[in-house]
Amino acid sequence: MAAAPTADLALIGLAVMGKNLILNMNDHGFTVCAYNRTVSKVEEFLANEAKGTNIIGATSLADMVSKLKRPRRVMLLVKAGSAVDGFINQLVPLIEPGDIIIDGGNSDFNDSTRRCKELAAKGFLYVGTGVSGGEDGARYGPSLMPGGNPEAWPHIKDIFQSISAKSDGEPCCDWVGAEGAGHFVKMVHNGIEYGDMQLISEAYHLLKSVCGLSNDEISSVFEQWNNGELESFLIEISRDILKFRDTDNVHLVDKILDSASQKGTGKWTGKTGLDMGIPITLIVEAVFARTLSSFKSERVTASKLLKGPSPQPESGVSNPLEHHAGLIKAIKEALYASKIISYAQGFMLMRATSQEYGWTLNMGGISLMWRGGCIIRSVFLGKIKQAFDSNPDLSNLLVDDFFNAEVARCQMSWREVCCKGITNGIPMPAFSSALAFYDGYRCDKLPANLLQAQRDYFGAHTYELLDSPGTHHHTNWTGHGGTTSASTYNV
Ligand code: 6PG
User: Is 357 exposed, middle or buried (0-12, 13-18, 19+ CB in 10 A)?
Assistant: First the structure.
């Protein structure tokens, strides 16, 4: 007689994230069945990291399914894209209606929505969950952002909330919403991650090239910043990276090629912003900053041909930290103000997309999910949570009293730093696009009247008048154009 199934969950994909999640679940008293397409990896895992634990292994998908308690919970930690569909197709004939398939990779939320619908039609419950926090997070407490078929949530809630990070005793995991909502929120998290990383990198560039600080000095500046409103995982690791020395005692950061890669979630966020008509300018600039960095050889050629200021830190300064204390403080405030804009834009995108798809995303809940465990975890997210707790319908973070006052407090420094960067020829796409957004958002009269007139002049696209919005007019600007207007439509 076959042994009674004992596993609470099966996890497919024994790369670094998969293994660490399994070990984390095991620590919390769950029995996990590990499986991998290359089955030898299962044996290796059981003989090494999983030795002495309650983790069990499977030799095939059928074997794995036979070891699962009902409803069966199968989690995929495989490469996003066709591998996910491939495993789903193999699993479907082996499981029963009511069983749950969870995708924990960085999947495109549109794919998750499709999979959720396709599987629901067959009676299976699909969950697409964001998992953030890298290797350590997966092992000791990630931020988890599950969404999909809501009927699955009661069956996975205990496991998910037990293994997730905690912030003030609350799990950094809650149900996000239907269909692809979980992966959508993870995608926006990643877009914001790109923005935060770019902002810190621009601050580093200024501190290095304008203030003339050494790596160790910049590390000490980040150490200080990490004790205030900028306290965050990304500032903390930047502090550590800057003081890290290679085996030859040279700072490793100075040896690393200045060409950044990306796996695509930032680009997806940008595309979604364009599709939804939400100006997430800072995230898009952060994606393009990586793209521009990858043109290394062209940039090297251009650096010899294209004229412009090249920053030279003042010579003869014996203590640059003290000498530039004012500018360093201004850079900190510029970073903080820009970060507020970035999050305001990210939350605008979530609000609009939630309305479009009827997901009713809970912004305060999302802030809590990001408050701990994930790559963008920070003290700052606690403030965002407070803003949405006191007003769940907040239209924009910038109009919350706290954030409004903070941007006002940092504003002059922010402007000064942008000018400093521009006059010194330091590219600051994130700092400066954040400021441009702020000035655009707070401007009651933009030059779009001229733009609209231009559209009507050359294409009869019509315009509305200040005193009668909603009514479209066309003018024969040249005297020889017709009076017929082009059809009006908005993308
Ligand atoms: C996380 C991260 C992670 C992401 C990497 C690499 O939340 O743990 O966002 O999911 O894949 O940070 O992303 P890029 O290669 O796009 O920089």
Answer: middle
